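We emphasize that the prediction below concerns an isolated chain of 91 residues; any contacts that depend on oligomerization or on bound cofactors are therefore not represented. The input was used exactly as deposited, without trimming of termini.
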Amino acid sequence: MKADSGGELGALVETIDVIAFPTPVTASPALQITRNNDTAAVTIVGAGDGTMTTQPSIRINLTANWTAKGGMARTRQLTMVLSYGGVTGRH
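Result of the prediction step, given as a token string:
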């Protein structure tokens, strides 16, 4: 079943990456999940090793790739850093 979030976006592929931030000396393996709107397939590309919860902060990248009208490839990405205190950034 195709998700409604893709709507008019042809061949939409959504990716979520969770990465230790800043990169520690002994980095935890990243987590990566992709979802293909055309096939409704969800793929766990990297499942990590369970140590991401020991990191003081993480970076999350949300990426959307799709084909626009006329066959033009499009990409949009949102990145945020989360720490034990919440979203990290300027206040």
